[in-house]
Amino acid sequence: MRSRFYADAPGLFHHLPEQFRLEIVEKSLGPSAGWFVKDKMAQVPCLLGYTPERAEVLDGNHEVRLHLRAADGSERKVVTGHIIAATGYKVNLDRLTFLNSEIRSRIKTAKGSPVLSSSFESSMPGIYFVGLAAANSFGPVMRFAFGAGFAARRLTETVAKALAQSPQSVRVPSVATTAK
């Protein structure tokens, strides 16, 4: 029933207290293979909580040595014939370097994700976030294609209203930085 609430009521989810929303997103709908690969993945040993550092092909063995690092700094080496590295992703606004540092510093965040209005707008007017970056504001289903419908409808309504109020121009902030 919780997942159904997250899927059907992202607008209501947005009104829950921020700390409660953050806890829900952190604990709900974690990493998981699609239903169509679940049986196959059950046969594969999984190592969680490691960051891949490097891999090297071992001569003539058709094997790979994978060097991993745990959060506590310890290292682990795995020799295997196949590797699936599903490293996951955590939103960290500071890593979005296509937004210049001044703009990034003016966007309010919670646990690295932008804090969004009910229309997906950040604290910097005219800058919107959807998808994974919207999960802390609208619920865990925003991480998936399933959440795109709600986001698209809400954002379309917002942009349409802005255009109706000022059809000559819509303010678009300069957010891009020059490539290094």
How would you sum up this structure, described in words?
It is elongated, with a radius of gyration of 21 Å. By secondary structure, the protein is an alpha+beta fold. Strands 1-2-3 form a 3-stranded antiparallel β-sheet, with no helix packed on it. It has a two-stranded antiparallel sheet with strand order 4-5. The chain has 7 helices and 5 strands; from the N terminus they run H-H-H-H-E-E-E-H-E-E-H-H. It folds into 2 domains: 2-31 and 89-165, no CATH class; 38-80, no CATH class. It starts with a helix and ends in a 15-residue tail after the last helix. Helix content is 29%, strand content 15%. Strand 1 (50-58) and strand 2 (63-70) form a beta hairpin. 14% of the residues are buried.
Query: Any idea what the shape is?
Result: elongated
Q: State which percent range the strand residues make up.
A: 15-25%
- The secondary-structure element order is HHHHEEEHEEHH
Count of alpha/pi helices? 7
**What low-confidence regions span 5 or more consecutive residues with pLDDT below 50?**
none
Spatial order of strands in the largest sheet: 1-2-3
Q: From the structure provided, what is the oligomeric state, counting identical versus distinct chains?
A: single chain
How big is the Rg?
Answer: 21 Å
